[in-house]
């Protein structure tokens, strides 16, 4: 161990260095020299990523419009845009033919082109022949045979059969057809990208992710939840899940910060509730719905019980069944969910019936776990 005199001398030298501005200046120069290459590298990466995003956004805008291509767009991107515009014009021809056979509704041309863009932009073999463009477009409609009564010149009537087109609303079905026509797998990334392109072309902004997107909601208050808490059977797994959801009322909503502090979003809330009772479900609303579907854990709305999950879809987003929101059913026509429009976890009446697309019961997994381990929960 150093003697006290040595320690005292060291302290004095350190104190003098701490108060000497020249020494601090030298230290600052050394630190700057060491960090400058790192800082410059980070800036280059960020600028490169930003430029790439700008080019992608510009390409989407220019492909869906007829404006002049700016000279600032890289030559490679400019060439892809020209070819994509040609393909869009060929697709429009087929869309017009198909739409002329529709009795109601019309084929969403932006949807067709957004999917095409996602699958082909940057491809070396982008230009297709007319039959291929037609086969691609046909994946978005059903053809049905209808009959109509035709009056003849002699006054008699004749039944005539004709073909009508019916636009498909199910994107999963459309992608299944496209995979057969294109003879390749369409990845989830390509599907999400198609929805992003569609949203930017139609709305000028990206797709909605997790959370609700409606203006109406019913306020909650502690007084409103007393009755339903009392109605929940004690000691059951379903009641425990709902009770856990109740403990999060008022917690702040955030996708970016979910899982830190009290922050949550809709799917983190449901995942957290089930994880607390040793049931693991995926981390997004769409993945949770897909999990329920694949595991045989779906139910009908008439069978809803406290602890079940309710899934909503508000507009296409490329995910499973276009699902963007989930909540825990609390019984008596109520739901507990993390609301992006309110900014917190709320307890309210079931809403937007027409937007509810699936109901799931993951707690069945808990019953199996407890049965296998001899637990008493059920």
UniProtKB/TrEMBL annotation:
GO molecular function, one term: cysteine-type peptidase activity
One Pfam family from the record: NLPC_P60
Record-annotated NlpC/P60 domain positions: 235-370
Record key words, sorted: Hydrolase, Membrane, Protease, Thiol protease, Transmembrane, Transmembrane helix
Organism superkingdom: Bacteria
Transmembrane segments: 26-46
BP terms from Gene Ontology: proteolysis
UniProt keyword Glycoprotein present: no
Family: Belongs to the peptidase C40 family.
PANTHER family: MUREIN DD-ENDOPEPTIDASE MEPH-RELATED
Name recorded for this polypeptide: NLP/P60 protein
Record organism: Ruminiclostridium cellulolyticum (strain ATCC 35319 / DSM 5812 / JCM 6584 / H10)
